[in-house]
Amino acid sequence: MINYPNKKKIAKKNISHANLGMTLEKDIDLTNEYYLLENIAVIHKKPTPVQVVDVSYPARNKAKITEAYYKTPSTTDYNGIYKGKYIDFDAKETNSATSMPLSNIHPHQVEHLRKISNAGGIGFLIVHFKKHNKYFLLPSRVLFQFWDNKETLRKSIPYQAFLEFAYEIKFSLNPRLDYLKIVDLLIDNNI
Amino acid sequence: MINYPNKKKIAKKNISHANLGMTLEKDIDLTNEYYLLENIAVIHKKPTPVQVVDVSYPARNKAKITEAYYKTPSTTDYNGIYKGKYIDFDAKETNSATSMPLSNIHPHQVEHLRKISNAGGIGFLIVHFKKHNKYFLLPSRVLFQFWDNKETLRKSIPYQAFLEFAYEIKFSLNPRLDYLKIVDLLIDNNI
Lengths: 191, 191
Description:
Shape of chain A: globular
Strand content of chain A: 25-35%
Mean pLDDT of chain A: 89
Distance between the termini of chain A: 54 Å
Order of helices and strands of chain A: HHEEEEEEHEEHEHEH
Structural class of chain A: alpha+beta
Radius of gyration of chain A: 19 Å
Oligomer: homodimer
């Protein structure tokens, strides 16, 4: 089959790019549903922020948005409460086998995690290395160290650093990604 | 001027209905900005959830949403961290001088606040009685009492109950609505 470049193809390509991380997101959503049902934690994904430009009203009570654009989120995607503590994190996927590029993270997400850390909350990233099929919880203080040196040292966090300074989250059936097990470790060891 | 009922008018009416509470929302946003700048608390409004149906790509890197609909939020609108505690609330406005109809509140928002309360978080509503130009912080436990009796007793919370069981938030210049002053009271008195 010959693939002629056409509009549809471009659209498809872009869509698949937009959906990058969809599976990780789904796995985290299912994990959070499990936590909610089992009364373990109340953690939700925030809706994707959208800038609405135009709305029409084809029928009463059902506004139809006809023009809108995705906005850059000003915070991380997930937050909630666990064991009385405020939890805050974002999920990132990388196709690289050797490192996670820091360009994957928005500067204001790092600033947000810094504020959360200063306020006594527990902040982190959940990172999926697709090539290794491994998931890690990266505490925000490790992220800050790499972030603060990204102009002088390197613009990515090496996979090796994940093996050393992050915590692997084992994938299982239910919950899919039991990241609160790692948060327990962080709480117990005051990390 | 005679107002002929036409499409534009219906649209306008719906828009003004959708924007009901816009000023309260703005005042709370400004208050949260103040808290953030002064390192008092990290509290954000969640984006309005939107169900995206169709997206076009008129230019690279800028997806244009061409069909989408507002979804009912599954949680409250605001959450964050204050003094190490998880904070969760919603904002409601009412035009009634005598009571706030419980139909203003989505059942899953009440369920969400119940889960937050059980998890040790601090949940409440900020309610604006426009006719009185008064703002109240209504602790979630008071909301639950009225909610749980709404089939047998009454379908609204009377203004009188706000005067007795809620806490008035005084409007000021900066911060506009210093609701964390009331949260301090709740924390100190273990309410």
